[in-house]
Amino acid sequence: MIERNCGCSFGCGGVALIVSIAIGVLSAIFRYLAIITVTPAFLWVVFGIAIGFLGISLLTQRNDSCECRALAPYLAGILGTILTSVILLGITFAATSLIGAIITGALLFFFSYMIINAVCKISCRCS
């Protein structure tokens, strides 16, 4: 097997983490201020997307060092998205609840982290 040096180690993962933290913090603030709301339909869609990504990642796994490095944060985003969407589906929070805002911020952090790491994983596969 040929080892190749890919550009998805810290560069792509670091950018994914910083952008996702910014999205999570902003969405928590917006949820607390009641600027945005999270509907059950949105939660079901996010949950379904995460389950779909999990299925795709299990079916298309290759033994590539670059893809293996990109897999751990990708799976963390998937599992975090699934967990926080199930929590928000199971418990109804008030529109200006601090705990609800924090969990909503965590949900959108994990969701954006999953999406950005999917792009990192695809860029590893295509390079």
Task: Describe this protein's structure.
- The chain has 127 residues and is mainly α.
- The chain has one domain.
- Helix content is 77%, strand content 0%.
- The protein is built from 4 helices and no strands.
- Helix 1 packs antiparallel against helix 4, helix 2 packs antiparallel against helix 3 and helix 3 runs antiparallel to helix 4.
- The longest helix has 29 residues.
- It starts with 9 loop residues before the first helix and ends with a helix.
- The relative contact order is 0.23.
- The N terminus is likely disordered.
Keywords:
elongated; disordered N terminus; mainly alpha; 127 residues; 0% strand; 4 helices; single chain
Mean pLDDT: 83
User: Roughly how much helix do the residues carry, as a percent range?
Assistant: over 70%
Secondary-structure element string: HHHH
Between the first and last Cα atoms, what is the distance in angstroms?
A: 16 Å
Shape: elongated
* Count of discrete alpha- or pi-helical segments spanning 4 or more residues: 4
Low-confidence stretches: 1-5
Q: How large, in whole angstroms, is the Cα Rg? A: 16 Å
Task: Find the structural class using helix and strand composition.
Answer: mainly alpha
Number of strands: 0
